[in-house]
Batch of 2 targets.
Target 1
Amino acid sequence: MSEVAIEIKNVTVRRNGRTVLENVNLKIGRNQIFAICGPNGGGKTTLLRTIIGIVDFDGDVRIFQKTPREAVKQGLVSYLPQRSPMDYTFPATVYEVVMMGRLKKMGVLKIPRKDDRRKVMESLKLVDMIDFKTKPFSELSGGQQQRVLIARALASEAKILLLDEPITGLDIHAQQVFYRLLVELKERTDITIVMVTHDIGVMPSFVDAVACLNKQLYYHGMPGTELNIDLLKKVYGTDIGILIHDHGNP
Amino acid sequence: MEILSYTFFQRAVAGGILLSLVFSLFSFFVVVRKLSFAGVGISHTAFGGIAIGILLGIDPSISALIFSVLIAIFIAYTSQKRKLHEDAAIGIFFSFSMALGIAIISKFHRTNVDIWSFLFGNITTITKGDLLFFAVVTGIVLVYFIFFFGDLILIGFDPEVAQSYGVNVEIHNYVFMALLGAVIIMGIKMVGVILISAFLVLPSTIASAFSKSFIRIILLSIFVSMFFTIFGLFLSYYLDLPSGATIVMTGTLLFGLTYLKKS
């Protein structure tokens, strides 16, 4: 593995007397696309929230050797939660949404400088949304909104992108376009992408490594051969059928 | 324009400008964060605070300020800790405070306190001291919004992402609600307990008909709010109508015209 971007050591999270994550150990390499799969309620979102330091935990989490709070303060991590908590009707143009990624870097009066404007335009170009910059964010399709949110993360100059169920609500075509964007970003930038999904059917071949999580970590390695039926039964706690297909490659 | 030579009207205009400025800033965040009911709740709880002031023989504005700010913080706490659904907490405090106010006033009402002006506002009651209070609250609100504008926008757009940017969402919720409580008391002097929530909803709602950009909506809200407040004040004088009711009706008419044109 190249340089380690995220290192999680013996992490346990308890909430309301219930163990949500138990003794999780994980290493995610720099500039990887890393997928975390597992059933709903298996602790995937909690793991992402642990990485950004908004969940109390036992153990140790390091992001480029820094604690989660330090990493967040330095803007190393950008987090895209599941679609539900976000207000998609918020009155903002695409440009303004991406500029939000620069807010923590601006001065007291939050007036964008030349550098902020340049970074926003660059990010919009990277996700191919430059033509939409004056459009209201609320009037975009789900896939376009996801691209804009990725642009916001890029504008913040984060080194790590955490995506929680990013393809929820997107149709097959939009999913493929979205995956292609992730691969392009990986190739054209130095970003590390961690993507959470409950659906093992979306474990495409472009993913560099995969972890299966259901409170504990059951598998951590390359996608493919070792991801067998017995393991999936353990993770998902039920009989599971796998349909082999070749649609993963964007 | 002889009206402008009257001291009470000059004070009303000055108060109206300050009020429009702070309420339009809050209006945007109240509307996008769907806190309109919290505004209604806090303004009505002020009635309980007014009654406590009457009971204790202190300035009802001071007791209402303390009571409203405490209730606003408590609403933020219940919502934050998910002890009780926010709507339920507001509903309970809203009716309790009104009930407390009615009980105290019916038992201990002193004739020198004009309850009607607290309920519906009265510009003639605005004193120099009130204007000073308005100016202090406006100053604090402006400092807060200027320094934490980015944080407030991020919270409004997505609280979870705001947290991931290192924004302390919990503290901001408390500060925002406490300031909202203080601002509402300021507005009660002008338009009263019953009508003040219109000031929280109308500016941003009208402005959002003209733009989908939050910066433009906020700037336009300030203009819209000042326009219907000052215009309403003049109308109330020339039509001999209560100022609070006239201002709110002017704002609502503007809202109606805006949406009529839009549709």
Note: Residues 243-249 of chain A have pLDDT under 50 and may be disordered.
Target 2
Amino acid sequence: MNFKPLFTLFFIAFMFSCKQETQHLTRIEGKQIAITDSLETDAGIEAFVKPYREHINKDLDSVISYAVATYSKSDGELNTAIGNLFADVIYEQSNPVFKKRTGKDIDMVLVNHGGIRSIISKGDITTRTAFEIMPFENSVVVAAIKGSQVNDLVDYLVTAKRAHPISKLNLTVDTNYQLVDARINNKAIDTSKIYYVATNDYLYNGGDGMDFFKPSDSLYILNYKIRNALLDYFYKTDTINPVIDDRFIKLDQ
Amino acid sequence: MKRRDFIKQSTAATALITLGGLTLPSFTAANASKHITILHTNDVHSHIDPFGPEDGRNPNKGGIARRASLVQAIRNENPNTLLLDAGDIFQGTPYFNYYGGELEFKLMSKLKYDAATIGNHDFDNGIDGLYAQLPHAAFDFLSANYNFSNTILDTHVKPYKVFIKDGIKIGVFGVGIKLDGLVLKNLYKETVYLNPIEIAQDMSRILKEDEQCDLVICLSHLGYNYSNDPEKPSDLKLAEKTKHIDLIIGGHTHTFLPKPTITKNAEGKNTLVNQVGCYGINLGRIDFYFDSDRNKTANGTSIIV
């Protein structure tokens, strides 16, 4: 017997059968279900997470330094104790790395006010404190920029009227927020000079409207996370006591 | 061919079809209705534990152990369920800082996620950091508009995947946001971003026409909508410029929608766009009902949101 016609027929019948029973989409229902405490907690998942959570908590809760007061980024107008600490720590921790690699010193530091994500509470400083202040993975970069770009940076700060954390830069404005004096390491800004400005990778790339870092003469990526700089500083510092100072001030008259 | 032979052979063929019908569930009873459930999350950002009772914004919300029990209950109700994620799995709690995403992937595998697309934050430990965690993910990563050919992720990310549930073919493809300006170049390295709208047009055609899918789903990390930048690719724009897509599951903009958005595609047909905020505090659920009964299908598709 020749089976070829049989299979051909089978195939045709099969195709026909499929076509006849094509599925048509008749109804769609869409909604959102809130994940709340009224839902049961899956015991297996919970047990799986537990050792990870305990390890992290033990590490995060280890005391590494002490704060004599509570510091908030809203406790000053143009400079704050926590912001000054933030910028000074970046300088203190990053400059040895930068100097070792390039033989040069960082001239100044600028990061952003919004980048301080939490307060430092009076009392024990733990690893968790550093994670709360700096939850993001941003790293320290040093941009080599012209003096004219530093002037743009100064204009940005004066216009913003915010306590963006700075270190090694001193600014004075009058009662109308007009620039009176701008100095780096106690010297006026020289437009013919190249300055080494430490910031983070987010701001270097124009974050928070900081468009003055580019074009940069060169960029040094230190592979040093801001949070790790804070942690390293806290490890070596028994007690922190930052203050509001004169690095960015408005004259009374 | 003699008529007698024809009848004989035709009878044999019918018998075979009936047998086939027993093993292929899609060809059973003439008016069988089918039900596919799509569950989805986006921008979970390493939020494994629920928010505490003191949290200022989301007290007592979220938590993967609760999501696990919810997903299981839905799977028990309808085994023909897919669980998908629209990216930014990484970054947001110390779980990521300490374990680099290992725990996120392991837990998503335990919840039996079927696929995820890649968000910008999934590059936070670099493309190498993402690659290093892939062995912990039992689900597929789908991205059609990131060309990873010259990166370590080459061959590890597929443009799309076709799932078959109860005989229904479900094509899922992924699209991601422009990385330049959002992710540092030294993190995403030689990943090439391609126009997501053009890629979505290709993908939806391939899935509908070549793969003959009954359902086409786009997993997107483009963002819901950019009213200040209407030219920027977004989920609403993607819906408007494509055809054949039934559902766009979005992410990136952490958009909380009061209900899924019904919008028109390039052919004037309805497309659903959904996004469920962030941090695992919601689960999206879209149910698709199919019918082969002509009387029921004559009225088109009704959408209830």
Note: Residues 1-30 of chain B have pLDDT under 50 and may be disordered.
